[in-house]
Amino acid sequence: MGLLKSICLLMIGNSSSLIRGVFSSATTFTIVNKCDQTVWPGVLSNPGVIPLQPTGFTLQKGESKVLHAPRSWAGRFWGRTHCYEDSGGKFTCGTGDCGSGKLECAGASASPPATLAKFTLGGTDFFVVSLVGGYNLPVLVVPIGGSGDNCTSTGCTVDLNDRCPSALKVVNSDREAVACKSACVAFGRQEDCCRGAYGTRGTCKPSSYSQVFKTACPRASSYAYDDQTSTFSCTGADYQITFCPTSTTSKKPKQEQQTPNKPHFNTGTVYEDANTTGHSSAPPRSSFIRALIGAVVGVGVLLFGAGCAYTIRTGNVNIMNGSCNCFRK
Length: 329
Hints:
Structural class: alpha+beta
Mean pLDDT: 78
Low-confidence stretches: 7-24, 247-261, 263-329
Radius of gyration: 23 Å
CATH class: Mainly Beta
Number of strands: 12
Number of domains: 1
CATH topology: Thaumatin
Largest sheet: 10 strands, mixed
Number of helices: 7
Order of helices and strands: HEEEEEEEEEHEEHHHEHH
CATH superfamily: Thaumatin
């Protein structure tokens, strides 16, 4: 039994170091809602990376939420608006809906138009606020700490719904503008979507519609090949993503509750499936984190084989500080 106990302590100590290593290298995202309405953020992780949880949640006016992502994470955030649950329990949003029928998007992306904040983390992080699929909310991304020549804030902080061309405007049944489509989403033409004969940087040029977006939000990506003026990068940064930012984003938000009402939308509106993924500036790198997770799982298997049964739960301080409670006196 003494030998088994020594093995247990050694293995848990090593696994604790691995777990601490994973968390110490995490990137922190702080999601803030400064809108005058409730926002339901959605989260989608790219294929091949550890999924970020939760994939959807509620932020009342003035609320914020902190998420931790491994340094190799890649994916996107967006805000959903005018959401409600019908009598059958189906969850639906007027803009940015991911079609899951639930609060969490569970691997589904936003139905355009929606303002996207996209990240590829690694030794150097790349990030962009994208209007390639359209716009629904003002968004500001601010790096916290970090370094780099191009490590600065970006976003689209103006209300494009007020200045959206009529051909791109999405309205509710009261004729109020709630979102603004991109030309690609509105018309589906190859020249607007940078597809087919227009599928290269040399052949796909900004349209008069994308120029409306670019003029209003010069740091945001307005069409698929607009990455040269809209992609930013940092090393070692955390990030704050603010919906409806004010001029001073450092002010502490007030905690106010707002009860959402079922919106009146034209339910017959159909959004065309546009190519809104853009072009990644750097590939996601997840092998290091997967190796660490695999090592932790391997430790668990060894301990189980040695007759040491224990449970690893999220936030279990016992496993983090290396204590071993698997032996009875």
